[in-house]
Amino acid sequence: MEKPFILINLKTYTEGTGQRAHNIAGAAQQVAEESGVPIGIAPSYMNLHPLSMHYSLPVYAQHVDGAEPGARTGHVTAEAIRQAGATGSLVNHSERRITLAEIDAAVRALRETGLISVVCSNNVSTSAAAAALNPDYVAIEPPELIGGTVSVSQANPEIITGTVKAVHAVNPGVKILTGAGIHSGECIKIASDLGTHGVLLASSVVKAKAPIAVLRDLVSKI
Amino acid sequence: MEKPFILINLKTYTEGTGQRAHNIAGAAQQVAEESGVPIGIAPSYMNLHPLSMHYSLPVYAQHVDGAEPGARTGHVTAEAIRQAGATGSLVNHSERRITLAEIDAAVRALRETGLISVVCSNNVSTSAAAAALNPDYVAIEPPELIGGTVSVSQANPEIITGTVKAVHAVNPGVKILTGAGIHSGECIKIASDLGTHGVLLASSVVKAKAPIAVLRDLVSKI
Amino acid sequence: MEKPFILINLKTYTEGTGQRAHNIAGAAQQVAEESGVPIGIAPSYMNLHPLSMHYSLPVYAQHVDGAEPGARTGHVTAEAIRQAGATGSLVNHSERRITLAEIDAAVRALRETGLISVVCSNNVSTSAAAAALNPDYVAIEPPELIGGTVSVSQANPEIITGTVKAVHAVNPGVKILTGAGIHSGECIKIASDLGTHGVLLASSVVKAKAPIAVLRDLVSKI
Amino acid sequence: MEKPFILINLKTYTEGTGQRAHNIAGAAQQVAEESGVPIGIAPSYMNLHPLSMHYSLPVYAQHVDGAEPGARTGHVTAEAIRQAGATGSLVNHSERRITLAEIDAAVRALRETGLISVVCSNNVSTSAAAAALNPDYVAIEPPELIGGTVSVSQANPEIITGTVKAVHAVNPGVKILTGAGIHSGECIKIASDLGTHGVLLASSVVKAKAPIAVLRDLVSKI
What tens digit of pLDDT does each residue of D65-114 get? Predict the structure, then answer.
């Protein structure tokens, strides 16, 4: 049985930039090594290279454009994040939604570049739709719970079980992360027991006074 | 065996507004009556009401927002197009793409309002994704063929058969339209033989000197 | 001295569709006739034609695309709203924001079609920017006050005076509306005294139990 | 008389990533030192830090979001690009257009962070609008000439003189760059003679076999 994957999204939080990004990455690496639980980190584009150089954690972009390299100013190509050391990318986070054709193109570009795709979705049916695009992961996050202190595991376990069932009906090879309000080992245990392969979280670690303490609690029931 | 459905998108073509919209609707109604082939028309929002009043054809909106009624300026609700006499709506046309969450919300709003949803897609994988949202129709249109004189039936039959297979693997209840370059009875015959339930077309009828002649040719092999 | 112009945005409020749209238009027409104050109404696209047919009020679209007629599904052209009887259109409302190039194209398309443009802005500097595009009106609405019960006249008179000054420095021919929270004759009097040419409002009329009573109060100090 | 500023946009060209980005930056630095002409470079987000560390050239982001740091996944804050060593950012490039309110917020965020803003525009009136937002530079680029071999200096000098006049009427403190098709010292000389303060260019340098030769030609008439 594979251990659940914990992916930490630093967003554009002040507490997740500069030296703080390094502190969180260092704490995550230490807890990953102590526990054997795989932990990844999704910093700003500018921090992909420094964090991938200094830490052994897998590093993810927060967004990627599926477009080919070329005359596209301000876009982020899969090849460019790969060169910066990324292992994969979030796609279609609820704070950076893109069109269906763009999600498809981004998943395809990541696959062709040898990178891992994590497509975010907001409910059971969009999770199933995302699974049809054959990404590595679908990450279901009910938008109304993102950034809150009540986790999806507690508030809406049905959306997790519904997503697991719907995603696997469409594409049994896709793994499932769940997110929104995840803040403790108990949240992760519930999510795992409901059939998911890990969690996507942000504020509970990034805004913590002591991220390492939160991280140790997160892995405590795995 | 159900006859294929022909849906005519008037876009914002000059040749599809004002009196011309009425002419095309009238011609379509006549050909539908002569042939027994179901024909629908998707005019501008402003023409939904007049065309639904004057003709017996089903009338579709070209786009709908899934959002609830409320403080949303310039949006188009499912309830509002229903009040204007619409039978359904296109969703996510390649000239009006929206996010995955918005497509899902639009399909849901149409369903709850008793209207028919036609979700447009650009390739096999996005067609499968659209099917997971449980619309009435998925309309596959390779963008590079839209508006051209070579039909998808002739240029890319594999995308049609691939879509039929992929959509039905995800959701056997979803019907499939195909579009892009459709201009003759022969195009429709091929599309039908490949397993689709009709076609979505625009310029070949709208920009024709004699739309009725094109329409008669379109139904000639059904 | 010209009387202030009152423009009522029906948004997609349930209370502003169907028969209710007619009731509000009828009440607005009556109050306009009683008072001599010019009142306009911005209904859904589908209601442009019916309201422009049945009432003598100027009718505005809530949004318009600047693009030329052609292969643009789900778009709204200036020519199409003109054919539906519109006198003008809102552009760039805070609930339907568009790019700078799109605002410019919309203003230009409205002007070339003989329609009135009302470009919405969110602060003093974007008001000045909008004025540089030479629309008929700039409508300044601080987004945080939209839909509330405290009017911009009371909460933030500085933004009104700042806008009047900045807009006229750039383009003295542009008239200024102000909106957000406008709900009484007193709000309009303050806005007028500060140098504006009218108001843009929505919920205070649309969601009122008796729109005509609110409308009579709105014109009471003019 | 200040020498014209040359800003090289690497876009997402393959020829502008990885080692090639370093080669172009090295060539630009050498030519800047030889000629005394100020040259800047706008690489991918991921290359901001490496290029700002290894070269003395000013480095610009290709896009920045005006939003405050916080729960915004995949966004690029002014503070984050400053930490990566950026001197400034392009805003609203025609390949990455944003709303008027977003342009205003980006210019404001750059100013508050001590960074230089270069707002791109597509014609005379949007240039004047951009100037009203008080950026450091407005960069006028007729979209139809971008990426081509005919420069705006030759094809449309009127748009340059019109922009200079309109921008300075709104805000005399704003400097003007011009772009689209710029590929030689002659193009820059014409642009300077018409009253601009420099040029924005991309393909002519990035896709050159020998960027240093193109750069030497670009500065040859200054």
Answer: 999 999 999 999 999 999 999 999 999 999 999 999 999 999 999 999 99
Q: Which run of H or E residues covers position C90?
A: strand C88-91
Annotation says A93 is catalytic = yes
For residues C169 and C128, the answer to whether their CB atoms sit within 8 Å is: yes
Distance CA B183, CA B214 (A): 8
Beta carbons of D218 and D179 less than 8 angstroms apart: no
* B46/C84 CB distance under 8 A: yes
The strand ranges marked E within B43-174 are 60-61, 88-91, 116-121, 137-140
Q: Which residues, at least 6 apart from B94, have a Cβ–Cβ distance to it below 8 Å?
A: A101, B120, B122, B141, B143, B146, C73
Q: Please tell me the pTM assigned to this model.
A: 0.96
Better-scored residue on pLDDT, B66 or A179: B66
Q: Are B6 and B199 in contact (CB under 8 A)?
A: yes
Question: What pLDDT digit, counting tens, does each position of C110-149 carry?
Answer: 999 999 999 999 999 999 999 999 999 999 988 887 777 8
Q: Report the CATH number at residue C112.
A: 3.20.20.70
- D104 and C128 in contact by Cβ < 8 A? no
Number of domains into which chain A is organized:
1
- Alpha carbons A100 and B113: distance in angstroms, whole number: 24
Examine the pLDDT at C179 and tell me if it is beyond 80: yes
Stretch A75-90: mean pLDDT: 97
Is A143 a residue whose pLDDT tops 90? no
Other CB atoms within 10 Å distance of the CB of residue A124: 21
Does ipTM surpass 0.85 in this model?
Answer: yes
Q: Which residues 4-33 of D have a C-beta within 8 angstroms of A?
A: 9, 11-14, 17-18
Q: Is the model's pLDDT at D179 over the cut of 90?
A: no
Statement: residue A1 has pLDDT above 70: no
User: Which pairs from C36-40 meet CB under 8 Å and 24+ separation?
Assistant: C36/C3, C37/C3, C37/C4, C37/C6, C37/C219, C37/C222, C38/C3, C38/C5, C38/C6, C38/C198, C39/C5, C39/C6, C39/C7, C39/C8, C39/C215, C40/C5, C40/C6, C40/C7, C40/C8, C40/C87, C40/C88
Q: In what order do the strands lie in the sheet with B116-121?
A: B39-42, B5-9, B198-201, B175-179, B137-140, B116-121, B88-91, B60-61
Distance from CA of D157 to the nearest CA of C (A): 20
Range of the domain at B176: 5-218
pLDDT value at residue D172: 96
Q: Which residue has the tokens 């990885």?
A: D18
